[in-house]
Protein: Sensor-like histidine kinase SenX3
Organism: Actinoplanes italicus
Amino acid sequence: MRNSMGVPPAAGFAVLHLIAVLAGARTTLGDPGLPMIWPAAGVAVLWLVNRRESRWRWVDMVAIGVITFGGLAAAGAGIEVALLEIAPAMVGPMVFIVAAGRWLPGLWAGPDGGRSLARLGELWRLLLCAALASVTGTLLHVVGELAAGADGGFSGLGTVTRLVRDTVAVVLFGVALRRIGHLHRNRWAELRGLGRDRWLECSAIVAVSGVAYWYVFSSHEDLPVGFLLIPLTVWAALRMPTSVAIVHVVVFGFVALLYTIGGHGPYARVADIGTTALLIQLYVGIVGAVGFALALVRDERDSLIQRLKVSEQEATDRATMMTTVVDSMTEGLAILDHTGRLVLRNPAAGRLLGSASSVTGTVALGSDHGFFRPDGTPLTDAELPHVRALAGEDAAPMDVLVRNAAVPEGRVVRFNVARLALVTGPYHVVVVFHDVTADRRHRDELMSFAGRVAHNLLNPLTTIEGWSEVLEQELAGYQPAERVERIQRASARMRTFLNGLLSYTAARDGKLMPTTVNLALLVGDIVNSRLDHAESTGAAPPYFEVGRLDPVDADPVLLRQLLENLIDNSLRMMAPGVGPYLAISCQPAPKRMVRIDILDNSVGIPPGKRHEIWTNFHRDKGSDSNGLELAICKRIVERHGGTIEAVANPHGTGNRMSFTLPAGRSAYARALAPTR
């Protein structure tokens, strides 16, 4: 891999490292003294970071040690001093590489030069990695001094100063060099994007900083006011581009060090050279930490603001798109909060409900909008599917007749509801409205037509049955009589089917004649008829367990048909060889209703078909029913204002058919009611 100038990276870093060593060796404070500026630490770290994946990285590490020794020797530092710096120069950067690979993966390394510092947390981890590298290098230097028996012995102050110096050098020069490389690679786009006002402000910051540093470190160096220069770093970090702010920190930190090395400034006035060296290193470190931290925080804030703007624009675009989609829907859509009030609705919802002004925001969607059952009986708020969903119940789709001033002729609307759970706040309910008026009218017309056809077909069927009986008598004893029996069986099946159609038509369209019905007496009569039928056919008699049965207000004819259909359905579903068992009882239900339960020990209804069985012409495989018995039951119950359902038998195998009817309200009903 070569850089844009065609120079191998290792050779380029070797030259840069040699320059850094030669320059730093001439910045000693005292004689012989410790170099106060040591950019070689930052260059060595960048060198090994960029060569992390190379198989020659160990050669690079050795090269760093050789160049450090040669540079110091050439600068007149002495052979012994140069030898002591070899191990720290080699091992310290390698420790940084290991630590950064764990805590800062991808920093300054990888495709396109890796990534730069982007967050404040990364700066603290970078400082920690630099500190570990500095501690390692400092310990190696101290061990080397002790082993060589260097003059002067061990100096704790000098050791701390060296540790701070190397940490500051890695962070300041490493970050600065990496940033300059980033700017060059991106053709200085960050600087070219500045406007005239920002350039003027940056120039003003540099000019003010230059005057201030001259004033503190040269003109009035006797005044201990070095801390007054920190606000300039804050100003630069908050207003300058990050790259310029980093250069500002490095340049003026370098200026402060040079003044102090030359014996100028408030820190040079300290009597002890070791204390002076430590103070100026701490000052540069603090200025660098403040500048870098503020610049990164500002960049992170700007990045978050930019992402927020992008997210806001994307959210606005999505909202606009969703609004357009929702408004263009032919189905109505409404969202209600946990109190039942509308928070959103589309125009189609207003058209379908017939009163756009009454379904706008913050208005409850209740029965006062003119909601009725399809048969015309009023609906209460508690019976509406979205109210039931808000109460935590499972609400199946429901047909609702909407009739108000805007829709005087009425419209059948199907309500489909679903709960909408939100991350914050209470849940909402989504209601989708479908206009099913034409579909229901077509279905009703079809069933009416089927009823009329069934009625008209009964007359020729009666003729066929009559003549087949005559033909059977005349052919008695002959072989063709068996074929006549087939005609009679087919006629019987056809009569059963036609009677079912007529029963459904009567249950759907016939006028209700409700009265108080002694339910116990009616069930007893049906039970006796089923026992007599089993005895006459030689079948196993079913066992009935009849519990408490309260009187109800219902049409006696339709109620008998309802009970007979449900009981016969249970008997048909018995498994072969199983003795039929049915338990019939009732219990009070809300809204002055009575719930009647019929439990059996049949094979049971699969969970996925417990709603499907109530539809027209539903027949299980192998069943001899006409597919209308349970649909008739559902229609009869709904016309009486009740509900019907099929669930698993809670006490064993089989089903529990449950339906509700109005409780008997007359004095006769109270007299029939069992003693409680």
